[in-house]
Amino acid sequence: MTDVKTPVDDVVEEPAGKPGKPIAWPLGLAGVALVIVGSFLSWSYDGSILNDLSINFYPGGLQILAIITALLALALLLIERGPLAKKLGPWLDATHGLRALGVGLTLYMVLVLVAISVESDGLINVNPGGYVSLVGALLIAVSAYLLPQRQLRDLTEARLPGWAEILSICVMLAAFLFIAAYALGLDDAWLFILCLLFVAVAVVGLFRTGALTFMSYAGQRHRKVLTLGAFVAAFLFPFTQNGSDANMSIAGSVLVFSATAMGLNIVVGLAGLLDLGYIAFLGAGAYVAAMLSASGFATIGWTPPFLVVVLIGACVAAILGLIIGSPTLRVSGDYLAIVTLGFGEIFRFSMFNLDGNNGPNLTNGPNGIPGIPDLEILGFNFGDEHVVAGVPLGRFSNYYFLLLLLIGGVILVFSRLNNSRIGRGWVAIREDEKAAEAMGVNVFGLKLLAFAVGAFLAGLAGTIKAHQDGAVSPDQYIFLESAFLLAAVVLGGMGTIAGVLLGATILKLLPEKLRFFSEYRLLLFGLLLVLMMRFRPEGLVASKRRQLEFHEEDEALAEEVEEERLAVQEAK
Hints:
42% of the residues are buried. The protein is mainly alpha-helical and 572 residues long. The chain contains 21 helices and four strands. The strands form two sheets. It has a two-stranded antiparallel sheet. A two-stranded antiparallel sheet has the order 3-4. It is 66% helix and 2% strand. The longest helix is centred in the last third of the chain and has 28 residues, at 544-571.
C-alpha cells in the first residue's frame, strides 16, 4: 500500500468544550488501581460459589472481567491526558466512554456482591476485596463526570494503514469468538448474567468513545475481509467447545432461528408487511422433510436425496406463501397482521387434523413424526462423532456446519435482493405505498414476491431443523414462536443483516441459559422491546436508511417544538 498522510499524523488544536476539575484524572487513576488491587484479593468467603472467588492473588473469572474493564478505563484516562492524548485524543470521546465504563463497572460490582450474598446467605460472606473493587468502580464513575468535554473531529475522516485496520478487524472477531465460547461454557446463571453485563458495559463504553463507530467504517472499507473473518470465526466456534453437545445444540438452534428471522426480515424489514404467522413456513419445510425421511413413522413411502427434499420443502413453503399472499396482500396494517395470524393457526390445526381420521394421514396428527434419522450426504453421516485436530465433533457440530452454509446462502440472497431494483421497490412500498404505486412500482407483485422469497428461505431452514431435532410436531409451531421471530427482527434492526443475527442470538440464547427465568421470559422480552422503542427505535444495529429517517423525524419534531415555543412567546 502507498503511504498516505492521515489526519492522525497532523493534529490541530480543537476548541475546548466543557472544562473539567483538576482532581478528576488522578481520581480515575486511583479508582483503576483500587479495582485491580481488589480483584487480586478475595471477594467471597465461600469458595464453592461463582467459580471460587475466595483465593487471594489468584483472581477468578469474574475478577478477571473486572480487571479487563479497569484496564479499558485506564486506556481512556491515558487518551484523555497521557501518552495517547496527542494521537487519539482529538478523535475518541474518552469522557463519555469512561462514564459508561464507570457506571457499568459499579453496577457490575453491586451485582457481584448481591450474587455472593444470595448464594451464600448474607453480605457477611463478602470479603474486603469485593468492597475495595466497588469503591474503585465508584471513583472511576465520579472522575468521569469531572473530566472535561472536548470538541472532537469527524471519525469519517480518520484513517489507519490498511494492514492496521484489517488487524483491528481480526482482533475484534477473535475477541467475539473468545467471549462467545466463554459465555456458553458458563453453567451458573449468575455467572452468565454477569458475563453478559460485562459485555454490555464494554460495548457501550467503546461505542460512546467512538471506537466501534470507527470499526464500522473500517469494516465498510474492508467488507470482504470482515465477511470472511466472520465466517472463519463462526467455523472455528465448535473447536472451542471441546465436544459439548449441549452448547452446540444451542448454537444450531440459534442458526435455524437466525435463518428464519432473515427470511422474515425481507417481509417485515424491507417490504414493511407485518406477518404474525411466519413460523408456519418453517413448519412446512420441517414437515416435508419429515414425511420424505426414512423414519418408521413417515407417511410417504418415498425417500429422495436430501437436496431434492430441501428444494421440495422450500418450494412447498413458497407456494403456501403465494396462497396466503394472493388474497390477503390487498389489505395492510392491522388487517394483514390478523390474517397472517389466522394463517399460522390454520397451519398448526391442519397438522393436528391430517391424521387419517379427519383427512389423509400425512402428519400423524398431534403425535407428529418422531424417529427422523440423521442425514447422510456423500457417505458423511451427520449422526457420527468425528475427531478433527484432536477435538471431538458430535452430531450437533455436524449440523452446525451445515447450517452455517445455509446461513451464508441466506445472507447472500438477502444482501443481493436488498441492493437490487427489487429491494429498492420493497423499501419504496414500505415508506409510502401510494407514492410507490404512482411512480410505477408493481406493488402487489413485489409484495407477493416478498412473501414467497421469505417463505422459501424459512422452508430451507425447516428441512434441516427436522433432521437436527429428530422429530416434528404441531406444538413446535405456535404463535409465540412467530412473535419471537418478529421481536428478533425489531430488536436487532429491521432491514439489516448483522442486526437480525444479533437479535436472533439474544432471543434464542437467553432463554436457554436463563432457564430459572423462564416463567418471566415474556415479561423480560416485553420490557426489552419497550426500552428499545424508547431509547433506540431503529434497533441495535440500525440500517442507514432507517437511521436517516429517525434523524429526520427528530429534526422535524424539534422544529415544531421550537415554532410552538416562539408562538407562545409572541402571544405573551
